[in-house]
Design brief:
The chain is built from two helices and eleven strands, in the order ααβββββββββββ. By secondary structure, it is an alpha+beta fold. A four-stranded antiparallel sheet has the order 6-5-8-9, with no helix packed on it.
Length: 204
């Protein structure tokens, strides 16, 4: 709810600033935006946001497109639907691999080798800096030249299903025992959607 109201307020502030003609202070713009927000009933908003995220000497450019549809704003019957898509295509990203009981790891992006890495004496992982592209990433660890383990991750599609995983299969019927259930959002092929923000509700 807070995110929606913040988006509403931001949109209203843009409308206010667009029509202010200059000369208005920040407080006046905010008050006018608040008034416009309180008067909103229905909304169909499309936003495109470009941002740069930084950590140390690394930066990633991210673009996000979002569509928001709302009815009954500022009422108890308010309903909204927000969908979005984030893209990092072509950006440099770091891929890490942690491993033991192996001499080396080779990384493949969509079938193309990104090179072989070997840990130093005090290292816990190896790293590749690659261009992001949708598809399949595969890590192959080897020992004495022989493959000992392979792991593969795929770019997820749109959220399509929910997976519930219990931390154990049995529970005591004493009214005190607990069981923890992990909730994951998957695409139609069973790939985890790491950026999914779907609201999941449970009824007792």
């Amino acid at each position: 709810m807070k995110k929606v109201l913040a988006l509403l307020l931001s949109a209203a502030m843009v409308l206010s600033m667009a029509g202010c003609g200059g000369g208005k202070d920040a407080r006046t713009i905010y008050d006018e935006a608040s008034k416009k927000t309180s008067e909103l009933k229905d909304m169909d908003l499309t936003t495109n946001v470009a941002m740069t995220m930084s950590q140390g000497d690394q930066t990633i450019d991210v673009t996000t497109a979002m569509d928001i549809q709302m009815t009954g704003a500022n009422t108890e019957d308010m309903r909204y639907l927000a969908t979005g898509k984030t893209s990092m295509a072509g950006q440099d990203i770091d891929m890490w691999a942690y491993y033991n009981n192996a001499d080396e790891v080779e990384l493949f992006v969509n079938g193309k080798s990104q090179g072989i890495r070997t840990k130093g004496k005090d290292d816990f992982h190896v790293m590749w800096r690659v261009k992001y592209e949708p598809g399949v990433v595969r890590a192959v660890s080897r020992r004495n030249g022989k493959t000992v383990l392979e792991r593969e991750i795929r770019t997820a599609g749109e959220p399509a299903q929910i997976r519930l995983t219990a931390d154990r299969s049995e529970i005591k019927s004493d009214g005190k025992d607990l069981i923890f259930i992990s909730v994951e959002i998957l695409d139609k092929d069973g790939n985890l959607c790491p950026n999914a923000d779907n609201q999941v509700m449970f009824d007792d």
